[in-house]
Amino acid sequence: SKIRERQIKKTKTVCTYCGVGCSFEIWTKGREILKVEPKPEAPANGISTCVKGKFGWDYVNSPDRLTRPLIRKNNRFVEATWDEALDLIAERFSDIRARYGPDALAFIASSKCTNEEAYLMQKLARAVIGTNNVDNCSRYCQSPATEGLFRTVGYGGDSGSISDIAQADLVIIIGSNTAESHPVLATRVKRAQKLHGQKLIVADLRKHEMAERADLFLRPEPGTDHVWLSAVTKYIIDRGWADRAFIEARVEGFDEYVRSLEPFTLAYAEKVTGIPQADLIRVAESIHAARSTCILWAMGVTQQCGGSDTSTAISNLLLVTGNYGRPGTGAYPLRGHNNVQGTSDFGAMPMYFPGYEKVTDDEVRQRYEAAWGVKLPAHPGLDNHQMVDAIHAGKLKAMYIIGEDMSLVDANANYVQAAFEKLEFMVVQDLFFSKTAQFADVVLPASPSLEKEGTFTNTERRIQRLYRALEPLGESKPDWEIIMAIANRLGAEWTYRHPSEIMAEAASLAPLFAGVTYERLEGFRSLQWPVAPDGTDSPRLYEKEFPFPGGKARLVPVAWIPPEPAEPVYDLHVNNGRLLEHFHEGNMTYRSSGLAHKVPEAFLEVSPELAKERGIETGALVRLISPYGSVKVRVLVTDRVRGRELYLPMNDAGEAAINYLTSSKTDRVTNTPAYKDVKVRMEVIEPR
Ligand code: SF4
Prior knowledge:
This protein is an alpha/beta fold. Helices cover 33% and strands 19% of the residues. The protein contains 25 helices and 28 strands.
């Protein structure tokens, strides 16, 4: 009826479950969520969503939501007023800064939160505390991809749009379980295969859905993508298939790069990667035959000790074949969290101000000093990996962590948790009492996306607005309001009344966002950075030039360093990643009934061969043991994995949490944990 219709509120929002950035209207009545309605005008997804976007919202009304601040007293958490909590935080932060200096504090922004909240978090760290110790979880996933792109083409983001992926002649997916991790983007590839015969090549350890759909499926040995990519590039050059006109006009460093490829013969690549030479030739031929090639990649590439170098090798291959700056071409590191792109873009990183301008650059720093009216630190801060080491070394004393269950999602969880025990003071701000909250001194109740306004930036650098559908539950508050309250208790005089004012400040300071305004983002409108002052945005980068002096891209030689071998007793390799139905440690999705019902707990995929060898069946209970810890998990026997490969989804916050197995090894350049480099042994607890 009309009366009922009038009581229903329809609010435009953006999904919080992956970097595709699906937007839609959410229908609510009071606090009840009635439905999610995708709209054709949604720029990234049109009328599509996946199961998480459609059914993953119950958590906002979970009885587990934090609704009041909590303070630890005599080792128990007691409810407190906001005044008590904020006073305590200001007193302890000031005291620790006075005793040990500003670099004894560190700040973790959340990639689930908005751009405006990331901006305020880095401003709090830099302008109010006086440290560059601020980071976010892009360090756990895509920093190596960003590094590979910075080195070669200049911008740390997808070089085109999802529509480019859809119109490519050839799509190559490396180390990405796209159908489960970026479902709506995967449907664009599936549709393009059907509609215009797009070709698909997939390289992965595991035969996931996209691998099954591929024209060619490559199964390299773990951590060896660099080698087959370089061998394919060399083969293309040797056959005279490089795009000489493009290289001549737009790329530097070709001759030196060609020399660096010498070791990467097909025979060598076959030996190292296990991929037959005939398949490598097919990859080269497919790229040569295609008018346009896109390469998509994710954690299978980046979460390795050589993640930055492999990402560089990907970009080198695209440059050699002229696959930048045209429709259907480009490099697409698929961003995981809904706003992992934006949280980095807006400066929650230890070496960058918003828009990737270096904190060590005097001119840039002076611009921020003038705007903020303070002197700023000139040395880069600690990244989140270094923060954990600095706690163990007694140098870092206090942390403020927003929306990140860092004690479970950082690698080598036992080591991280031991560090958190040592902190003098810790503030955790979240929706739920997470594992990390257990280590805190103050826990602050935050509001989820449906209860606040702001912007997210998706994997295509697309900035989109979200509007408030629900009032904050209980005494919870939007993160930006909490950060501002803490800053002001510490003596700042911030007066933001709405996130649009925060964006206006960021846009006035960071040239990358010069033309971003809330008016230009109204409703389903969006902008892809860089955005010129007149509001012109950039759906496709590098059409005319690369953002380096002289405008040319750079071919960057990268040497191959093999993964370290494990002790023979650790005879199994654990691959890990996502499930369609769950998001990370599952704090939100296990509290959404439809999703929890469908997949109630994590499971370990075991190959039929290994199951036979160990005498186990689906449903068996096993313990996996690495040098760093152990997990207990039920088994699913499946031929998606082969031989001594295992697959453990990362979506568990209990006894099967993957990071009890991972080490503190990292990518050599960016310190991204080598989450995919895990060797274990298996003990059978119950065989069936
Ligand atoms: Fe959300 Fe990603 Fe699914 Fe879209 S594809 S609905 S952004 S989880």
